[in-house]
Amino acid sequence: MTFELFYWPGLQGRGEFVRLAFEATGTPYVEIVRGTGPGQGLDGLMQTMDDPDCVDPPYAPPFLRVGDELIGQTANILAYLGPLLGLVGESPRTRRWVNQLQLTLADLVAEVHDGHHPIASRLYYSNQRAEARRRTADLIEYRLPRYFDYFERVLAHNPEAGGWLSEGAMSYADLSLFQVIAGLYYAFPRAMSGFARAYPRCRAVHDAVARQPLVAAYLKSPRRIAFNTTGIFRHYKALDRTTPF
Q1: How many C-alpha atoms does 149 have within 13 Å on its Cβ side?
Q2: Are 228 and 235 in contact (CB under 8 A)?
Q3: Does this model's pTM top 0.90?
Q4: Rounded CA separation 163/175 (Å)
Q5: How many CB atoms lie within 10 A of CB 244?
Q6: pLDDT tens-digit map of 50-105
Q7: Does residue 20 contact residue 26 with C-beta atoms inside 8 Å?
Q8: 101-131 b/e with 16+ CB inside 10 Å = b?
Q9: For the chain, which domains are there?
Q10: What pLDDT is recorded for position 162?
């Protein structure tokens, strides 16, 4: 089985949540935009996404091609990959639970993105600076604590999970929680300065994921695209003004 990942070049974005699932399990995959042959590169991504004959077209990257099937939406891709890669438990209830956690993280990711693009995605940050300052202040002071209060409560109320979000083993939701926390440390170093003290269980998940041998190797490799100001998590000094934790 060949997994082909389609995502925009040069940024982590939502594609990184899928990359982490592959990298954490040592699963081979092909990233189409990094290729140079026929059907690869950015042209290959656009041609596949806009193919008028496709019966199940994705709305936008990331999407995964497995055989003749295209699977879109980050949480949907991970719900598909989780059982195949051993990143979710066996029971239907557990699989629904991990998917619920992933969808909650997707909500958080959307709010982070809207912090620096509060008016419209098609406008540059420079066209909405004042609005971004107001939106991000609310994100840092109110929304982030609400989300992390929830995840800290999940971890505290599941002692049998061994420090993970579900069933005593690392799931794709744990990988995604790691990515969100890592991204927020990049975007808001000042605001996140007290995070580990305020949310020790969430920080422990972040650190435990980073220590996984395959993840640690990936984070040091050229395959891991650096955080930058074209992705979801962006560092603008003007937006990192408060310390809520």
Answers
A1: 8
A2: no
A3: yes
A4: 13
A5: 18
A6: 999 999 999 999 999 999 999 999 999 999 999 999 999 999 999 999 999 999 99
A7: no
A8: bbebbbebbebbbebbbbeeeeeebeebeee
A9: 3-85 (3.40.30.10), 92-212 (1.20.1050.10)
A10: 85
Q: What backbone torsions phi and psi does residue 150 show, to the nearest 5 degrees?
A: -65, -50
Cα gap 25→149, rounded to integer Å: 29
- Identify whether the C-beta of residue 62 lies closer than 8 Å to the C-beta of residue 14: yes
- CB-CB contact of 41 with 35 (8 Å): yes
Structure-token pair, residue 241: 């003004």
Q: Residue 14: which of 60, 45, 49 has the closest Cα?
A: 60
Nearest alpha carbon to residue 237 among 132, 144, 118: 132
13-35: pLDDT as tens digits: 999 999 999 999 999 999 999 99
Please list the residues that pair with 63 across neighbouring strands.
6, 72
Q: Which two tokens stand for residue 237?
A: 């000094």
Sign of CA dihedral 85, 91, 95, 98: negative
Q: What is the C-alpha separation between 116 and 130, in angstroms, rounded?
A: 10
Whether 196 and 242 have beta carbons less than 8 Å apart is answered as no
Residue type, 24: A
Alpha-carbon gap, residue 47 to 172, rounded angstroms: 29
> pLDDT tens for residues 187-245?
999 999 999 999 999 999 999 999 999 999 999 999 999 999 999 999 999 999 777 77
Q: What is the DSSP letter of 28?
A: -
Structure tokens at 166: 């579900």
